[in-house]
Amino acid sequence: xxxxxxxxxxxxxxxxxxxxxxxxxxxxDARQFLYSYVRKEAVMxxxxxxxxxxxxx
Length: 57
Hints:
Elements: H1 3-24, H2 30-52
């Protein structure tokens, strides 16, 4: 992997963090936003996990 290829995900991550930081300044309660986001990610993760489990039949 070249250094340019390695830098791309890093730059995307920094951009996403910058967007999150900008939005958090507009929210009345950033903790509530983060709680909702983390909960949504947890639900999505558990749904993906359920799809990857072998069926019990």
